[in-house]
């Protein structure tokens, strides 16, 4: 049986600095001077016969602090320090504790130090000076020490993980239409357009056909002509996002290189070619000769159509001149055995006339809302271009199929009130793709890559690509499949 009163006596002696009067053999060590000090005690090493018990301040003993369970335990008591007592003081005192004995016994030599397990109460029960030795009564209630509170570590914070050139070069257009803007109802909630909302993802291939078509100008950043290897590499990426490409000219052997790339790599791409006519009939004839030669060299079924010019009425060409070029090209193709290839013009919707539509196999219109004088939201901008295409279909086309030759959104620069950012470009292409599909329109989205070869032009004109000028994706093309 272990009696803990001895250690309480030592604590009392420590508080009165009387422990030095007893020969404690280095095993009961005074740690501090105040009542919160603790005694390190090694059992069996105190010479209790030499302790002057008359000097013990029994009134300083807190009997409520006695762990009576440990008193009758044969288990070796731990060594406490002042830190342990402070920790113990944070627990709740037992609701019931045995009353102190009226007489305190003199400890035997085999007594062991008690194990404090509860808070020392603030109230102190005075104890009379003992006159005889009486063993403490067996406690009727054992109060266990409070269980330690488990500590759940805070969750760890995850480490937060961008071509010889003819002169002048054909310029695919993304210029504004001079016609009055269509009237439409603004959205109740404008589209958010912050540049930080979306950061470019790592390049991921998208399924073929995410976009119906994509315009492609192959010129290098410095304006030079790319070789067939470069064109092949780029078209392999383009084939991951569309099944149709639109070219504007035959210069830089771009039609021939594209046909070779598609044939050699077995790409699922159809070519909608273009003839440049803005520099006069001589240039138009040169492009037509190259178009026929390249088409005959490769599989002509890869060529799905040819546009005679691009926005030439808006550049000042007369309607009759354009109609004459269209008829001339069609007659030449028929004589070369290529009469199955559709022939058409591509014009801004504001300049497309019924007479032009009458000689075209397809009514192909370029429509942009990015240059509108009023901006309310990307949703409204998409609705605007669909409404304008509907107007051409209902009032100009004469039953011919209507197709977007160009539409798009720039990711940088300024064109007016429309916000230009990567976030708004992504929003526009997503919403336009879904709206065009719902309305039944085919289209060529402008454009495949950023056109840094357009030296001296506005940044906005250079930043329409879904690929950067280095042909790295500007965003995750999986976002194009969300309709």
List the helices and strands and how they pair.
Layout: H1 5-15, E1 29-30, E2 39-40, H2 68-71, H3 82-88, E3 214-215, H4 228-238, E4 244-246, H5 254-265, E5 270-275, H6 281-297, E6 303-308, H7 319-335, E7 343-344, E8 346-348, H8 354-358, E9 363-366, H9 378-395, E10 402-406, H10 422-439, E11 442-443
Helix pairs in contact: 4-5, 9-10
Tell me what you see in this structure.
The structure is a single chain. This protein is of the alpha/beta class and 483 residues long. It folds into two domains: 1-145, no CATH class; 214-481, Glycosidases (TIM Barrel), CATH 3.20.20.80. The protein is 25% helix and 8% strand. The strands form three sheets. The protein has a five-stranded parallel sheet with strand order 3-4-5-6-7. A four-stranded parallel sheet has the order 8-9-10-11, covered by helices on one side. α10 links the parallel β10 (402-406) and β11 (442-443). The chain is elongated, with a radius of gyration of 46 Å. It starts with a helix and ends in a 40-residue tail after the last strand.
Which descriptors would you attach to this protein?
483 residues; four-stranded parallel beta sheet; alpha/beta; TIM Barrel; 10 helices; 2 domains; disordered N terminus
């Amino acid at each position: 049986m272990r009696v803990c009163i001895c250690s309480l006596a030592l604590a009392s002696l420590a508080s009165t600095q009387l422990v030095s009067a007893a020969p404690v053999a280095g095993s009961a060590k005074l740690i501090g001077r105040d009542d919160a000090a603790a005694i390190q005690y090694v059992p069996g090493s105190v010479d209790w016969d030499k302790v002057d018990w008359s000097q013990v301040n029994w009134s300083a003993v807190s009997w409520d602090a006695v762990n009576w369970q440990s008193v009758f335990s044969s288990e070796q008591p731990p060594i406490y320090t002042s830190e342990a007592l402070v920790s113990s003081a944070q627990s709740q005192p037992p609701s019931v504790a045995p009353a102190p004995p009226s007489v305190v016994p003199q400890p035997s030599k085999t007594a062991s130090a008690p194990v404090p397990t509860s808070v020392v109460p603030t109230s102190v029960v005075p104890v009379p000076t003992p006159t005889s030795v009486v063993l403490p009564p067996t406690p009727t209630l054992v109060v266990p020490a409070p269980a330690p509170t488990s500590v759940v570590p805070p969750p760890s914070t995850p480490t937060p993980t961008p071509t010889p050139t003819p002169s002048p070069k054909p310029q695919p257009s993304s210029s504004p239409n001079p016609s009055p803007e269509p009237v439409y109802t603004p959205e109740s909630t404008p589209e958010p357009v912050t540049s930080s909302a979306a950061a470019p993802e790592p390049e991921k291939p998208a399924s073929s056909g995410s976009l119906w078509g994509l315009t492609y100008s192959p010129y290098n950043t410095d304006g030079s002509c790319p070789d067939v290897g470069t064109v092949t590499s780029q078209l392999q990426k383009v084939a991951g996002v569309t099944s149709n490409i639109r070219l504007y000219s035959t210069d830089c052997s771009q039609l021939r290189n594209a046909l070779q790339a598609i044939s050699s790599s077995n790409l699922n791409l159809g070519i909608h070619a273009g003839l440049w006519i803005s520099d006069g009939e001589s240039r138009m004839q040169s492009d037509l000769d190259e178009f026929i030669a390249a088409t005959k060299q490769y599989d002509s079924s890869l060529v799905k159509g040819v546009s005679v010019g691009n926005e030439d009425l808006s550049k000042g060409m007369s309607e009759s001149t354009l109609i004459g070029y269209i008829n001339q090209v069609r007659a030449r193709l028929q004589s070369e055995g290529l009469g199955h290839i559709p022939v058409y013009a591509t014009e801004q919707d504001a300049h497309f006339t019924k007479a032009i539509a009458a000689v075209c196999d397809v009514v192909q219109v370029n429509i942009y809302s990015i240059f509108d004088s009023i901006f309310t939201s990307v949703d409204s901008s998409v609705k605007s271009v669909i409404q304008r295409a509907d107007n051409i279909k209902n009032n100009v086309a004469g039953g011919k199929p209507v197709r977007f030759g160009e539409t798009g959104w720039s990711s940088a620069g300024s064109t007016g009130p429309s916000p230009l950012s990567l976030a708004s470009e992504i929003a526009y292409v997503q919403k336009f793709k879904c709206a065009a599909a719902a309305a039944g329109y085919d289209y060529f989205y402008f454009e495949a890559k950023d056109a840094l070869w357009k030296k001296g032009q506005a940044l906005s004109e250079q930043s329409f690509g879904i690929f950067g000028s280095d042909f790295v994706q500007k965003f995750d093309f999986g976002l194009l499949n969300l309709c």
